[in-house]
Amino acid sequence: MKKRITLTIDGKSISAFAGENLLQVARDHQIDIPGLCYHKKITPTGACRLCVTKVAGTPGLTMACTTAVQEGMVVTAFDPELERNRKHTLDYLLAEHREEKENLKWDELHALSVRYGLDDPKVRSYPSVRGKANFHVDASSPVLVYDASKCIRCFRCIKACDEVQGKNVLSFTERGLDSYIIAGFNHWGSSECDGCGECIQLCPTAALVEKPNREIFHLEKIERKVTTTCPYCGVGCQMELWIQEGKIVRITGKEGVSPNDGRLCIKGRFGYDFVHDASRLTTPLIREHGVFREASWEEALSLIAEKFTSIRETYGADALAGYASAKCTNEDNYLFQKFFRIVIGTNNIDYCTRLCHASTVTAMLKAIGDGAGSNSIEDFETTDCLFVAGNNLIETHPVTATYVKRGKAKGMKIIVVDPKWTPLVRYADIWLQPKSGTDVALINGLMYVIISRNLVDETFIRTRVEGGMQAFQSLKALVMAYPPEKVAAITGVPAEKLISAAILFASSSASMVATGMGMSQQVTGTHNVFSLLNMCLITGQIGKERAGINPPRGQNNVQGATDVGVSPVNYPGYIPVTRTGNRKYVAEVWNVSPDALPGKPGLTTVEIMQAVHRGSVKGMYIMGENPVVTDPNQNHTREALENIDFLVVQDIFPTETTAYANVILPASVWAEKEGTFVNSDRRVLRVRKALELPGEARADWQIILAVAQAMGVSIGTCSDPEAIFDELTRVTPMMAGISYDRIALEGIQWPCPDKDHPGTRTLFLEKFNTPSGKAILHPVDYVVQNEHVSENYPFLLNSGRILYQYHSSTMSRKVKALNAFENASYVLMNPLDAAKYGFSTGERVKVSNVRGTLFSTLRVSDEVLAHELFMPWHFSESPVNALTRDELDPYSKIAPFKLSAVKVEKA
Amino acid sequence: MFTVSGKVKYPGFFEVETGLTVRDLIEGFCGGMLDDKPFKAALLGGAAGTFIDKSMLDMRLGYDLLREQGLTLGSGAVVVLDEHDSVFGMLDNILHFFSHESCGKCVPCRIGTKQLLLLMDEIRQSGNPEKVKELVAETEYMALSSLCPLGQSPVLPVRSAARFFNLASCE
């Protein structure tokens, strides 16, 4: 328990907690003691010596930044002697510094020189003492330039890299005046730096500056800074867009707010080139005789209205289907599903969640009643044991991973389950490397150990699990068929590792699960997550602080789109469409007749494409998705879209999918519209308009309204995104208490049922969100995969993401800095296989199976097991989905992207 | 334990009781001054120590006794200089040592140790006694503000050298 104490600074009585940092306490009370090496995100350094104070009873001067406050402390922060001393130190610093004249950055040293009357070099007392290294410049990184002549050696960049981001790339070289910062072995570009730019963000001078736009950036020309949410993954990082002459010229992390407290990754900070790319769609296009021609909005809209209407009249509403977008705002998505339900009259709407966490959400909804992460992002740092299953967290959720690395530094235990090595393995206490597709056996094996060693939480099972010990007994009966030796034979994971992992997970005071695509993107995806849930439930590692299960979401708004009703089975707020009562409730808010709302569940993403292929779906409206690259079994998708009667694609760029469109509508990027996203920890976050739309492009929500209007149906008086949001909170009970006003500064985590509710950090503390309020065990058996290696197809191909590209790369491959790090497809092969089949790194190879063929470059790597391969799926010229199956998980309809039998030949 | 080096006949290290004098060390243990040249100065306690002149030859050596005189025994190292040696030159050497040894972490030491060398150059060229005062003032600022004993140390040799010798004339 923290102890409140009282201290006095310059005669002012101040209340603080014992042990708090004196400098921070003073600044928090508007006593502005100068200091350049201190930053509240890092440990104190005591290097710049500007925060000198006098503490009664302590001889000499005391640095405020390295002093903990105590009861009764009497501090002098300002007197003539201290100010003389500070001026002296500043004068010293200026003697070694090259003045910032390029207006690249707000320079804290310059600001202090003005404050102490030292900005004019003529009044300074000391001759220049710049060391030889002072002229060192490292411009080898694609994202930043380090100029030692502007460096004050404050350690902030080093600690930003170590303590804030957990990367440990930076250090000093040389000594004294000649010391300067290096990355790796004194060459930024070849170091392990992954370009997150936290060092730039914490650098107090212009020693570290972003490389992109360095030539044009000018501080005084910045028109405005707009706070918004990152458009890449589902962490939901808060960022500031710096706008100069109507363009984004820099992005920085927003300090002091959740979920990221200023941290960003390389995509967030540097991945914005695409916004101003010349290939943006700027006018509607209509395809005629195989070529696209420009069209007016009026013409495009009336063509869409005419075609959609005629398809509906001829074949019925279910002959139309829509893909919404995890990249678009809640407001866009809410209107999209409302459009399909009211104007078209079908529930055939889905989006990429079906390809990502559909199985996770399905299992979680059935077992615990909510399909979203049970915890808050901070818990990734504070839990005692983190169990990461099939999630390459460091590359795919880089900022969440910073919490994990900080937790690890403080003693958190980490168990990684992944058939492929990921950077997180470096931090893991135990790495379980099961053969692809054997996860249910693995988790059942862990539960065998937990049960046989009596590490079960019986009280939890009795009080919080439906059926109590009886339900447990039937689970036990099933998992007792999975002793470690048998599981070792199935999975390839040694029995002793299984045992240690099971003991660690069950006996830690709080254990938390993070589950990813490795678990979900399988034919047994739902079963995989049921197993994980079973394990949490029998050990009581859920329903309390710092414990639970979390699916970090891959896209900025993949959580929100489902939350607001883009689902073939649910209305906003996970309200099933099949119940008459629900239809009445929603119809009332939407001001339509309940009979007008279809009660039949719609088709899911892959089912829609299959229906197109069969010819039962004749028309599609795709908003911001690229299914030709992202859907499984690419040749099948292409065939489907070649034969579709009418396809509308609304996007920001021409994509592999727009090529098949009859009409292309130019839409908006996230920085061109107002709205909200929901991140992985259920935080409803604001998105703000910072830029004007290019050409005739329109905000997505406006386009949907216009299409509805062209079809002669009003979908409400949705004049602006705030009005749309207010309406959606009326249909979505878990967001009922949220408004733009309340989330102006910081997001709120749903459920937030009323306007006085603070939001919910941890789910299920009191009860689960099931009808009984109790969780439900779902015992599941391991089933051997249908897809397996054979003589003709001796490899199992796994697919996934890398840090530097993003999904189908529509955005990220238009970013110079990202491409500089990684811009080509590769396929990883185990050294044993490479030796056996005679392959070597760098060789061009043909990867194929019955479904398709692609070409890529081989890399020999022990990151994968023998008989397994891995490929990033970002590169459309080597489309992994040419090889994947559209055979689906029966419960969630997710496709098995992680497991395709293939052969490899020299190209 | 004293280690005596410099211009004495028999340099070496000696385990003795505290309370003896520098004269005892030179004459009693080291066989007197090398070539019997007159004693000029001794540096007590190494680079981060203090200079004395001949007026202090009969002062008793002990931690408290020296502290009362504003001097230090430090490591017990005693470097003896004769009349041909330059205290200014020795001090310059010591300040180069500090400048080289400064790790660079804190500002007063990183930049101060270099400023001291520049001031020494100025004194050498101008002979201006005001610059000697500035030199002492810089070391006092450094002693007050530096992070570790390295930056806090130059004040000892500088202040003592300025006290016993005419640095402005590069004595």
Concise description?
The complex is a heterodimer of chains A (907) and B (171). Chain A is α/β, with parallel strands linked by helices. Chain B has helices at residues 22-29, 63-68, 87-101, 107-126, 129-145, 149-152, 155-164, and strands at residues 2-6, 12-14, 39-44, 50-53, 77-82.
Q: Write out the strand line-up for the largest beta sheet of chain B, numbering strands in chain order.
A: 2-1-5-3-4
How many beta-strand segments of chain B? 5
Helix content of chain B: 40-55%
Structural class of chain B: alpha+beta
Mean pLDDT score of chain A, rounded?
95
Sequence stretches where pLDDT stays below 50 over 5 or more residues of chain B: none
Beta-sheet strand percentage of chain A? 15-25%
- Secondary-structure-derived class of chain A: alpha/beta
Mean pLDDT of chain B: 94
> Whole-number radius of gyration of chain A?
29 Å
Shape of chain B: globular
Q: Name the strands of the widest sheet of chain A in spatial order.
A: 15-14-27-26-25-16-17
What does it look like?
The complex is a heterodimer of chains A (907) and B (171). Chain A is an alpha/beta fold. Chain A is 29% helix and 18% strand. Chain A has a seven-stranded mixed sheet with strand order 15-14-27-26-25-16-17, with helices on both faces. Chain A has a six-stranded mixed barrel with strand order 31-35-32-34-33-36. In chain A, strands 2-1-5-3-4 form a five-stranded mixed sheet. In chain A, strand 8 (170-173) and strand 9 (180-183) form a beta hairpin. The longest helix of chain A is centred in the middle third of the chain and has 19 residues, at 297-315. Chain A is globular. The model of chain A has no long low-confidence stretch (mean pLDDT 95). Chain B has 171 residues and is an alpha+beta fold. Chain B has seven helices and five strands, in the order E-E-H-E-E-H-E-H-H-H-H-H. Chain B has helices at 22-29, 63-68, 87-101, 107-126, 129-145, 149-152, 155-164; strands spanning 2-6, 12-14, 39-44, 50-53, 77-82. The longest helix of chain B has 20 residues, at 107-126. Chain B starts with a strand and ends in a 7-residue tail after the last helix. Classes of the chains: A alpha/beta (907), B alpha+beta (171). The A-B interface holds A 45-50, 52, 60-61, 85, 88-89, 92-93, 95-96, 126-127, 129, 152-153, 155, 172, 174-179 and B 99-108, 110-115, 118, 141, 144-147.
